[in-house]
Amino acid sequence: MSYLSEMRKNEAWVVSVDMGYGHQRAAYPFRDIAFGRIITANTDACVSPEEKGLWAKFQAFYEGLSRAQNIPVIGPWIWRAYDRFQAICPHYPFRDLSKPSIGSSRLYSLIRRGFGASVVTCTREREDLPLLSTFYAVALAVTSTACGLPTTPSGVV
Asked: pLDDT grade, residue 146 (50/70/90)?
């Protein structure tokens, strides 16, 4: 047997979201290593209807804010405020940033209530595979569950 035939096939869970083309374009080059298929975290068959509804609300909120920037006078102000809300701090800040931000606290609250649980359940089929996600919230949901943060598909903790 040759060395190449003995090698285990490189596979990973490849997870994307259907929120514009950016995330799917980032996942597409990894389609050959995807275990089975690229999982679309907000519309895949393994995602519960409740979770699909939550994703739809997030997408509608973001798209509404994106369109709001075209409103004269207040639109650019609304977008700058939202952009500042989700800004990433400098790599070497001069102040203590150990406290969680409002956004990260909200995301972990959603994860505790079951946000991302469908992808967690789906990827437990083969826990030995690494996860490659194009969206940070999915990666946090999977790693939070792996680290013991409780999540349930029903959203009840």
From this structure: low
Asked whether the whole model's pTM tops 0.90, one would answer no
3-state secondary structure the chain: CCHHHHCCCCCEEEEECCCCCHHHHHHHHHCCCECCCCEECCCCCCCCHHHHHHHHHHHHHHHHHHHHCCCCCHHHHHHHHHHHHCCCCCCCCCCCCCCCCHHHHHHHHHHHCCCCHHHHHHHHHHCCCCEEECCHHHHHHHHHHHCCCCCCCCCCC
The one-letter code for the residue type at 36 is G
Query: What CA–CA distances, in Å, run from 20 to 26, 63, 69, 92?
Result: 11, 10, 17, 32
pLDDT digits (tens, 9 = 90+) for 87-118: 777 777 777 777 887 888 888 888 888 888 89
